[in-house]
Design goal:
With 506 residues, the protein is of the alpha+beta class. It has a domain at 84-162 and 193-219: Nucleotidyltransferase, domain 5. The chain has 16 helices and 23 strands. It has helices spanning 48-65, 108-116, 120-127, 136-146, 150-155, 164-172, 185-188, 203-209, 249-256, 315-325, 333-338, 378-404, 421-431, 443-455, 462-466, 481-498, and strands at residues 4-10, 14-20, 26-33, 45-46, 73-80, 86-89, 99-100, 159-162, 182-183, 194-195, 200-201, 218-219, 229-230, 242-248, 265-269, 273-278, 291-296, 304-311, 348-350, 368-370, 411-414, 435-438, 471-475. β15 (265-269) and β16 (273-278) form a beta hairpin. The longest helix is centred in the C-terminal third of the chain and has 27 residues, at 378-404. It starts with a strand and ends in an 8-residue tail after the last helix. It binds adenosine-5'-triphosphate and magnesium ion (MG). Adenosine-5'-triphosphate binds next to α10 and α11. Residues 11-14, 81, 249, 270-271, 315-316, 318-319, 331-332, 334-335, 415-417, 419-420, 423 line the site of adenosine-5'-triphosphate (ATP).
């Protein structure tokens, strides 16, 4: 039997290919960034052809450098940035326009209209999501309404919709020569077009968004013993490997962190932050601004659901310090700069660049840096950026506790920012609970590998995976309760000042 599992992690900022062994250890990886296209304020796009090209390159590079071939891989899984919307022509394989990325806010009017027309409750009940720019449904409607020719092609089944998992799967399995058009329930649950109970596209929702069913992929289990398809030997694998796992990136991290029992949660720190709490086979509907989403569906098992707190901007605020303000040369420098001061000197930064996601869901919010004085420096702003990551997390943790009645005793973390020790210490201080980081921090790719490997019997069951999890480091709170509450009070005041800023006609 082949000794390894491959995982493609198509993220917001980069695409990785990783290979894991049976103990869940990383054997090889390569990663390439792609362009963030921002044609106007609030618009964020990616070029799907570039993403497919990066994917081919990272796969080929890993296989060459590690001297592995398709035959060494028992299966391959895909994980991906969710909600990002791609529409392409099945006859040519060409996208009709750039991908509209999850952070893009051009559909604010579509979301507001749904709310105004009284559809919010129905949408919330069926999909677990509030009307917001974040999800694919509005983005797909925008493409159908604004790009000439797409609607007619979609009705004939020539224009295909997919999130990046589906786009890559279609290309990997042959593209215009028989590519399969499939997604999984975790990705489908973020489109605002799928019913959480039936795990099928819902006719009422399709009518609301004006989406022809013919353009939508088939929804198949996240871990699929039947395989969605096999890699095309003419493609980057140069052989036929079964493709047997698909999970949205945050659900993949939940699986990678082995949160298989109800009540287990993880928080991933990447471009944004995403806290997911496993609620088992129960669909828990949030009263406090969280999303209800599919956590995973393995084979014929019942789907497992999660409550999710999505935060749009955390690591991307650090990138903003680097790219737009130019006060750091790289993300790791944020720790050094913030460490030059003992506190933020009263500065609070609320990075509401795409409005505020959970638990506020306010697309009319925009970012602020407040509390500035003649004393304020770059270091205070850098520290406020790290604190904002912690405070936004506290907002969603409180919502999670209120919804679930479960008090968090430890926060399991992963993702790029968890390399920042100061940020993790601040997180523990702000929450007042320990923060625990596992040895394998690439939990997103690992989760996709787990889903793929479970499907082919590479791993026998989820319990076996739990033995692969090991703690690397833990941070304990050091702030007094008074300090914690004072800081949080100031944060809430700053958040209040971001609201009601953008008018829909702006
Ligand atoms: N030492 C650090 N301190 C602060 N932020 C960091 C640090 N290292 C990385 N980051 C931030 O973490 C993010 C990258 O994390 P990660 O690699 O987990 O994200 P990602 O998975 O690539 O994101 P995505 O999947 O959304 O593309 C970047 O936004 C970067 O600014
Ligand atoms: Mg990622």
């Amino acid at each position: 039997m082949s000794e390894y599992i491959g995982a493609i992690d198509q993220g917001t900022t980069s695409t990785r290919f990783m290979v894991f062994d049976h103990d869940g250890n990383e054997v090889a990886r390569h990663q390439l960034e792609h362009e963030q296209i921002m044609p106007r304020a609030g618009w964020v796009e990616h070029n799907p052809a570039e993403i497919w090209e990066r994917t081919r390159t990272v796969i080929k590079t890993v296989l060459t450098s590690s001297k592995l071939s398709a035959a060494d891989l028992a299966a391959v899984g895909i994980t991906n940035q969710r909600e990002t919307t791609i529409v392409w022509d099945r006859r040519t394989g060409r996208p009709y326009c750039n991908a509209i990325v999850w952070q893009d806010t051009r559909t604010d009017r579509i979301a507001a209209d749904l709310e105004r027309a009284g559809h919010a409750d129905c949408i919330r009940h069926k999909t677990g999501l509030p009307p917001a720019t974040y999800f694919s449904g509005g983005k797909l409607k925008w493409i159908l309404d604004n790009i000439p020719g797409v609607r007619a092609d979609a009705e004939r089944g020539d224009a295909l919709f997919g999130t990046p998992d589906t786009w890559l799967l279609w290309n990997l399995t042959g593209g215009i020569n028989g590519g399969v058009h499939v997604t999984d329930p975790t990705n489908a649950s973020r489109t605002m077009l799928m019913d959480l109970e039936t795990l099928d596209w819902d006719d009422e929702l399709l009518a609301l968004f004006g989406v022809p069913r013919a353009m939508l992929p088939t929804i198949a289990p996240s871990s699929n013993p039947q395989a969605y398809g096999h890699t095309n030997p003419d493609g980057p694998f140069k052989g036929a490997v079964p493709l047997t796992g698909i999970l949205g990136d945050q659900q993949a991290a939940t699986v990678g962190q082995v949160c298989f029992r109800p009540g287990e949660a993880k928080n991933t720190y990447g471009t944004g932050n995403f806290l997911l709490l496993n609620t088992g086979s129960d669909i828990v509907r949030s009263q406090h601004g969280l999303l209800t989403t599919v956590a995973y569906q393995f084979g014929d098992d019942k789907p497992i659901y999660a409550l999710e707190g999505s935060i749009a901007v955390t690591g991307s605020a650090v990138q903003w310090l680097r790219d737009q303000l130019g006060i750091i040369a790289g993300a790791t420098q944020s720790e050094m700069l913030a460490g030059q001061v003992h506190d933020t000197g009263g500065v609070v930064f609320v990075p509401a660049f795409s409005g505020l996601f959970a638990p506020y869901w306010r697309s009319d919010a925009r970012g602020i840096i407040i509390g500035l004085s003649r004393y304020s420096t770059n270091a205070h702003i850098a520290r406020a950026t790290l604190e904002a990551i912690g405070y936004q997390t506290r907002d969603v943790v409180q919502a999670m506790e209120a919804d679930s009645g479960v008090k968090l005793d430890t926060l399991r973390v992963d993702g790029g920012i968890t390399a920042n020790e100061l940020c993790m210490q601040l997180q523990s201080d702000i929450l007042g609970v320990p923060v625990s980081r596992p040895v394998v921090r690439e939990t997103t790719a690992l989760g996709a590998a787990y889903a793929a490997g479970l499907a082919v019997g590479f791993w026998s069951d989820p319990d076996e995976l739990a033995t692969n999890w090991h703690e690397d480091k833990r941070w304990e709170p050091t702030w007094s309760e008074a300090q914690r509450e004072k800081g949080y009070g100031r944060w809430k005041k700053a958040v209040a000042r971001t609201l009601d800023w953008v008018e829909l006609d702006d």
